[in-house]
Design a protein that fits this description.
Elements (H helix, E strand, L loop, with lengths): L9 E3 L5 E3 L3 H10 L1 H4 E7 L2 E7 L14 E7 L6 E4 L2 H15 L2 E3 L2
Antiparallel strand pairs: 1-2, 3-4, 3-7, 4-5, 5-6
Length: about 110
């Protein structure tokens, strides 16, 4: 018998905790209906934006803990900069680090 592959899909509980979701249709529906819950932070920067989100699927693709969060810079001098994180706490700290790197910012959410 072949081993069951690990689940790579996740949703957030009402209190923001990621949990595995084995049903791809349920996952897709949750992702569409919970856009606001997936966005952890957004800030305008000089000529662009910094956004930190819950990805909904594991971007680690190995036996380690799931990588479920991402910060990206859109436009401006750091366009395309991206980092990924294991936890919400790490993601929010990473968001703050890139805001410092990019300079002054204004919250978008």
């Amino acid at each position: 018998m072949l081993p069951t592959p690990p689940n790579y899909l996740f949703v957030l509980t009402d209190d923001g905790r990621p949990v595995e979701c084995a049903d791809a249709l349920l996952w897709a529906t949750w992702m569409k209906e919970h856009h606001d819950q997936r966005v952890l932070a957004r800030h305008a920067i000089r000529d662009g934006e910094v956004s930190t989100v819950f990805l909904g699927c594991n971007h680690g693709f190995d036996d380690g803990p799931p990588i479920l969060y991402e910060t990206m810079v859109f436009e401006g001098g750091h366009d395309g900069w991206m980092d990924r994180y294991y936890t919400r706490k790490e993601a929010l700290a990473g968001h703050q680090r890139i805001l410092v790197l990019c300079g002054d910012s204004l919250p978008l959410n």
